[in-house]
Design a protein that fits this description.
The complex is a heterodimer of chains A (328) and B (316).
Chain A lengths: L4 E10 L7 E11 L4 E5 L6 H8 L7 E6 L2 E2 L5 H8 L2 E4 L3 H4 L6 H11 L5 H14 L16 H13 L5 E5 L7 H18 L2 E6 L2 H7 L2 E6 L2 E7 H6 L4 H9 L5 H6 L30 H5 L5 E3 L2 E3 L18
Parallel strand pairs in A: 3-8, 3-9, 6-7, 7-8
Antiparallel strand pairs in A: 1-2, 1-4, 4-5, 9-10, 10-12, 11-12
Chain B lengths: L4 E10 L2 E11 L4 E5 L6 H8 L7 E10 L2 E2 L5 H7 L4 E4 L3 H4 L6 H7 L5 H14 L5 H4 L9 H13 L5 E5 L7 H18 L2 E6 L2 H7 L2 E6 L2 E7 H6 L4 H8 L40 H5 L5 E2 L5 E2 L9
Parallel strand pairs in B: 3-8, 3-9, 6-7, 7-8
Antiparallel strand pairs in B: 1-2, 1-4, 4-5, 9-10, 10-12, 11-12
The chains are: A alpha/beta (328), B alpha/beta (316).
């Protein structure tokens, strides 16, 4: 079976007037199978949103390849790109800015079908009603405007529009980050239901590891423009192979006072370095609690350890007991 | 011991809408109290009221604000201005928006000390070191735009705490930060509360942050306190249906992935539509007629836990 998405050696460099280019994404590769949800996590500036923009053709990469449902996006002519866009759709963080305030919900959700000449008149209205039902809204909502809806409902509308063309790939960039907890749960439940029902592939970009664990099948962790680790969900959360993944997992405050206060603290020293001037060797070595001489000189290979693909010289030691002891 | 900050029966109105309605809480020296709730519950405006920094549209319609036993509502603005930054301080979600872009780190932190010259410089360097800023001698010459988000938040905390205030109001101080930086800032706040005896009121929407740092919690819903108590009790045995649902709606690292999360039907009502009876009634699974007729008072549920629910005993 062909992958829904294949990203190979993707790089996005932004030129800067003075100094070296900002290497926002610097050699990222992964695939997503049909029906699969891949989480892409990392802290701000790691390049995760730039990857998602390149995947949907909103950001031209410096090098590399993006193949959506068998079609190469990078360097594609407008016609190919237009056809490919029907196979991929995007959901952004802020539903308020994703909807035209002057357009009714029905017009917004039906627009992809109308523009491509796939339905009109009563048939279009029926399809829109069906899409609204699919995301838990009512058919009569079609005549209303975005301001008449809450944030959670607007995100449902955006999802309904994204589903209109039955895309092979859905790219969600922080889809629940702007929503309150009670509403977030509704949207997460909806996304899980849609995954089950439609068999779409999803690239799910988020900084929230608990959310990613909840909806994803596999998880890729980015740091400074590169993948640090890529692993099946349960393996990644049970036995992270990269010290950065482990530190991220331990840094997530869990809503359980006893468990949260008993966790080992792995303070990551310092700040994320600038992507214009990434550290030599392993990019994580300046903040890594395990860093040793080879990490400062030699770039770690992308290799398999257990169920994970990981870029760390000492991946075998990440879960060993005593890793938090001083002097390690 | 008198509490560092004691808010009693605070009510705030915007026009006819009672956006905060009879809110009471107290925080002692060295204690961290979390004020938690979803957007629009009134948690931030409550903190602004405590600082007497309410926007013009908001009026305080009742209640008392006691800072170390002194009633703030009775003070003239000139006295209040002397207390802000000295006896009580506030920090915010966006440190870069709160810092003066035109003055150096050293100047802004020094401003809060009232000292000048070498004495001010020494105090600033010591404080920056205390909040975990490396190479403070270099940092004091930098401008806010040269700082990362985490570094700027440390500078704001240093500015807020250099005069050793009794109370720190922290409004979503880590919401804009990455998790690894958030962990550093929470550790810092915890240490400052313990070592300096600062009373901290932490305003947040994040139950994980509450679990990490708070000693006690007040859960707010639609301008009222739904439930309050020690953090371990509230998480282990919530006695308000809103708290229970809020906790069940969170995806957790220990849960079965893709299992349905608890959902709170409907949405937070607008202040103009706040009910005179229980404000959670329309979304509550335990609702009865009484909930729609009489506002539930905060009732003692044992072990310092108070719940404003007629059916607190039935909450699972």
């Amino acid at each position: 079976m062909t992958a829904a998405l294949t990203v190979a050696d993707l790089a996005v460099h932004y030129p800067v007037r003075h100094g070296p280019p900002v290497r926002a994404v610097d050699g990222v590769s992964f695939t997503i199978a049909p029906g699969e949800t891949l989480g892409l996590v990392g802290e701000s500036g790691c390049g995760k949103s730039t990857v998602s923009k390149s995947v949907v053709g909103l950001q031209a990469p410096t090098r590399g390849s993006v193949v959506v449902d068998g079609v190469e996006i990078v360097g594609a002519d407008r016609r190919t790109l237009r056809q490919a866009r029907a196979r991929m759709q995007m959901v952004f963080q802020d539903p308020a800015t994703s909807l035209d305030p002057r357009m009714t919900i029905g017009a917004a959700v039906g627009e992809p079908l109308l523009v491509r000449g796939l339905a009109r008149g009563q048939a279009l209205r029926d399809r829109v009603a069906g899409l609204l039902a699919e995301v838990g809204l009512r058919p009569e909502h079609a005549t209303r405007y975005p301001h008449q809806f809450s944030g959670g409902q607007r995100q449902r509308i955006v999802i309904a529009r994204a589903l209109a063309l039955r895309p092979a790939l859905l790219v969600c960039d922080e889809p629940v980050s702007a929503l309150d907890v009670s509403v977030r749960a509704q949207i997460l439940n909806l996304l899980v239901e849609l995954q089950r029902g439609l068999g779409m592939a999803t690239l799910f970009v988020s900084h929230d590891l608990a959310v990613v664990r909840h909806v994803c099948d596999r998880v890729a962790v980015m740091y400074l423009g590169r993948l640090a680790e890529l692993a099946p969900r349960d393996a990644l959360f049970a036995a992270p192979r990269h010290p950065y993944t482990r530190a991220l997992l331990l840094a997530v405050p869990e809503p359980d006072p006893a468990a949260q206060r008993a966790k080992p603290r792995v303070p990551l020293a310092g700040e994320i370095p600038s992507p214009a001037n990434p550290p030599p060797g392993c990019r994580f070595h300046t903040r890594c609690p395990m860093a040793r001489a080879p990490c400062r000189e030699q770039e770690p290979a992308w290799r398999q350890v257990g169920e994970s693909m990981v870029a760390c010289h000492f991946a075998e030691e990440v879960n060993s007991p005593g890793v938090d002891k001083p002097g390690c | 011991m008198i509490p560092a900050l004691d808010v009693r029966d605070l009510s705030l109105a915007i026009g006819g809408a009672r956006v905060v309605d009879g809110v009471s809480f107290a925080v002692r020296a060295g204690e961290v109290l979390a004020l938690v709730g979803e957007s629009g519950c009134g948690k931030s405006i409550t903190a602004f009221a405590a600082m007497r920094l309410l926007p013009r549209a908001v009026t305080m319609t009742g209640g008392q604000l006691l800072l170390e036993g002194n009633d703030l509502a009775a003070l003239p603005e000139s006295r209040m201005r002397r207390l802000r930054g000295r006896r009580m301080s506030m920090i915010f979600q966006e440190p870069l928006a709160a810092l003066d872009p035109l003055s150096t780190v050293g100047t802004q932190v020094a401003e809060a000390t009232g000292l000048r010259g070498a004495a001010a410089r020494e105090a600033v360097l010591a404080m920056l070191g205390e909040v975990g800023i490396s190479d403070p001698a270099r940092r004091i010459r930098q401008y806010p735009f040269e700082l990362s988000g985490g570094m700027a938040q440390r500078v704001m905390i240093a500015t807020a705490l250099i005069a050793r205030p009794a109370v720190l109001l922290a409004d979503e101080p880590t919401t804009a930060l990455d998790v690894t930086i958030q962990a550093q800032i929470l550790d810092l706040l915890r240490r400052l509360a313990a070592e300096r005896g600062t009373a901290i009121v932490l305003i947040t929407h994040d139950m994980g942050v509450v679990a990490d740092i708070a000693d006690r919690v007040a859960v707010m819903y639609a301008g009222r306190i739904a439930e309050t108590g020690p953090v371990a009790r509230i998480f282990a045995a919530p006695r308000h249906p809103y708290t229970a649902l809020l906790l069940a709606a969170l995806p957790r690292l220990g849960d079965a992935p893709k299992a349905a999360l608890a959902v709170i039907p409907g949405q937070v009502p607008l202040p103009s539509a706040f009910s005179a009876a229980c404000r959670f009634a329309d979304r509550c699974p335990l609702v009865t007629d009484r909930c729609r007729q009489e506002p539930p008072p905060l009732r003692e549920m044992g072990a310092d836990q108070l719940s404003a629910c007629w059916h607190a005993e039935r909450v699972r």
